[in-house]
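Hi everyone, sorry if this is the wrong subforum. Our group has a chain we'd like a structural model of before ordering constructs, and none of us has done structure prediction before. Sequence below.
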Amino acid sequence: MKIPRRVRGAAYRAFYNLPHPVRRGIVRMVVPKYTVGAVCLIRDAEAPEPGRLLLLRQPPGRAWGLPAGLLKKAEPPHVGAARELREESGVRIDPDDLEPATPNAIVHAKGWVDMMFTGSVPASTTELIVDGGEVIEAGWFALDDLPRLTPNTAKVLGVYGMGPHAS
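Answer:
Right subforum, don't worry. Here is the predicted structure as tokens:
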């Protein structure tokens, strides 16, 4: 059903005459909401082609995934990515040294968005530190010999031409 132009115009005028907090509340009720996370694709800077990738094993520990986590309120995505990388693996990278991946955002059907970043560190001099709770194990894996991946990790890596779903 097409809404007449006159009615649509009146509705927009009424909406924009509302106080800003009320308009924001209406938009939040109507527009889909997403949880936003930051994900790191960290390569071993010393590995020959095809390269090695940092992966983490988290509980229940049957498959491997990428360093990732939810952003804190008002946290810039690259800062959140560096924070999560440090918290989960012990790897320290200045947020400004992380590069936005292309594509930089992956929208998942189940209501979350992953902001994707790439970086590299020399594996031989980078100590991997895990807490044993949130992360059970961290390791470097050759891109042509990846371990069993979580379904989401396999999907995300496929977007970047890596892993079992690479095109």
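For your construct planning: The mean pLDDT is 92. The longest helix spans residues 5-17.
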